[in-house]
Amino acid sequence: MSNKKCPGCGVILQKNAPDQPGFYIPPEKAETVFCQRCFRLRHYGQLKKAADDIAAIDREIQTALKKSDLILLVTDVFDPEGSMPVAWARLFTLPVLIVVNKADLLPERTPWAEMATWFQDLWTRRFPERELLGVKVVSARRHEPEGLAKLAALKKELTGKKVTVMGAANVGKTSLLTSLLAAEDQKKAQLPTISRFPGTTQGTSTWTLHSCGVTLYDTPGFLPGGRMGDLLTPETASRLLPEKKLQVKLWNLPPDGAVLLGGLVGVWNQSPDVRTLVFFAGEKTTIHRSRGQKAEALQQEGPDWLRVYHRQERPARFGEKFFTVQPGEDLYISGCGWVAVKREAARLRLLVPAGVEVGTRPSLIGRRDG
User: Residue 93 to residues 61, 71, 121, 160, 260: CA-CA distances in angstroms?
Assistant: First the structure.
């Protein structure tokens, strides 16, 4: 059996089982051979869902860790908690350098340096006994001087190291790797496969940054299980993610006023008076303001104009939760967005699919003192 790997996703190539990972059709002429799944993604944007084998992904990561000096943990500015699940503490057996990706989504007035401090504090709260080397804030998609300077600084930080690149599915891990490799004049046809679908990377790929003597082991992305997108199809999960910017809505919500997000989340103001709330979500998530029984009916019905998911995907169970959120805090819904509270504390009722991680945190964007 051949041990040659697909350069797009890292899976071992094979030509005997069309329904199994790594299947490829030998081309007549090609410098680089991709598995059929990567070929369809790269040329047609079509996804063939691969089976999620958590044990196999774990083995891939453990093998990479044994060869490495440190971990490069790629996180998502849109979903900090979903890209740093507490259960991963057991994997952090080496010093960790966090890379906060997708910083281009931030409002222009938000300094990237703020994110470094914020993510460092999140790490301390979640992994107090694990070593953190630092936090780098980058955009793998931003190629103007600022973005390129951030990537160059990251390469310098990694000089001479062997690095396990880890991250939850769809945090932009492969986009980051591709940006680093592109700066090395790597041929485009030989770069990893990038898509908006989670789970594109199927095995571990080894890459070298010759300019700084860095070896990178690109490992498959985990589906943590607590994100909204982990409950839905890959196509729907990709629609929840912002592409170019965050969608932001500010409302003074009256008592019993509600805001619905994509037919998946409902937030009701149960405070005695009007409260100022700011809602953050991806561009394709419908954010709709309503009130009382009408809001209840819309959340239950999930009409076509409100839903971000296909009707047959509707989660079977929703849970009701209550939070008192202070000014300068967010109520986050992992993988879907968050609500920031301004001026006065708000008592909020939340309807959300069972299994999605929710909670309060210091505000990610804007003043934290209310």
Answer: 11, 9, 20, 20, 41
Higher pLDDT, 316 or 19: 316
- Tell me the Ramachandran region of residue 3: left when phi exceeds 0, alpha when psi lies from -120 to 50, beta otherwise: alpha
Residue 162: alpha-carbon gap to chain centroid: 24
Separation CA 267–CA 273 (nearest Å): 15
Q: Per-domain residue ranges for the chain?
A: 52-224, 237-362
Distance separating alpha carbons of residues 267 and 218, to the nearest angstrom: 38
Which tokens go with 217? 């082991």
Q: Are 317 and 354 in contact (CB under 8 A)?
A: yes
C-beta of residue 3 within 8 angstroms of C-beta of residue 205? no
Look-up of token digits 């968050």: 338
Alpha carbon distance 202, 270 (integer Å): 45
The rounded distance, in Å, linking the Cα atoms of 242 and 231 is 18
DSSP string, 23-36: B----SS-SS---H
The answer to which of 39-53, 56-70, 116-130 has the lowest mean pLDDT is: 39-53
Per-residue pLDDT band for 194 (boundaries 50, 70, 90) equals very low
* Cα separation values, 330 from 38, 261, 292, Å: 38, 16, 23
Q: Which class would CATH give 52-224?
A: alpha beta
Structure tokens at 196: 């908006």
CA torsion sign for 170, 71, 6, 150 is: positive
Could you tell me if 277 and 269 are in contact, meaning their C-beta atoms sit under 8 angstroms apart?
A: yes
Instruction: Report which of 318, 258, 310 is spatially closest to residue 288, judged by C-alpha positions.
Output: 258
Identity of the highest mean pLDDT range in 184-198, 216-230, 328-342:
328-342
pLDDT in tens, 21-51: 666 666 655 567 776 666 656 554 444 444 4
Whole-number Å distance between alpha carbons of 283 and 243: 7
Q: What is the CB-side half-sphere exposure of residue 293 using CA atoms within 13 A?
A: 0
- Four-residue CA torsion sign, 144, 145, 150, 151: positive
